[in-house]
Amino acid sequence: MTYRLSLLLFCFFVLQPIMAEQKAPAELHISTPVWPGFTNADGSGAYASLFQLIYRKEQVQLVWHFSNYGRAIALVQQGKYHMVPGLSAHESIKQHNSVLLSAYPFDFDLIVAIYDPAHTATPQLQQLTQYKLAWDLAYDLHLVLGFKEKGYEVLDIKQGLELVKNRRVDIYLAEKSELQQYLQGETPMKLQPLEYKELLKDPIYLAFADNDAGRSFKEIWDRRFIDLYTTGQLKAFYRDYPQLTLPIVH
Description:
It is built from 9 helices and 9 strands. With about 250 residues, it is of the alpha/beta class.
């Protein structure tokens, strides 16, 4: 009886504080569009796997919130969620307001020019200002390209392709992986007779809320990204996901 009582007392006074110190994982609220293959609606995808690699599961739980790109950024700017992926360093000051970019890019957007070869010569980056251009509403591609003026902004890829086919614009600029995902979808508009040409790579970053929680998650990301880059684990991860491009970290 004395032995059992002693054991119970041991469990109460020794094990209870230890169990109390085992904190539940912090919740990282991610605001993002559904990008098929990258951020899927079920929380899977290449970006999702990368985030889970950086943030240890026992320490951080990923919580997903899906919306369009502009709203996804705004919700992080407002401090309602902690992080949004996919911002360019060239985005407007408005897009960068109240957010903190990761120290290094984690991927690249490959921008392609979609055109009708029957009416437009093969696009060259240095000659784009000669053409009527269009691109998606959420992207500040005029800043990426160094233009003073915006092109015609469209709501989606389908509208952009229609504008080129109907000769309302000469060139529609799109992100290559998004274009490919659209063309492989259930009800895509056919690309033909249009063609596309790769123009440039634009590095993209994570944007964190400019508050205590956002700064904490950014610090973890920046530190772990460098650690895993140094050990070669990131290189191995990116090799398994060829749709991603690993940046060179100096």
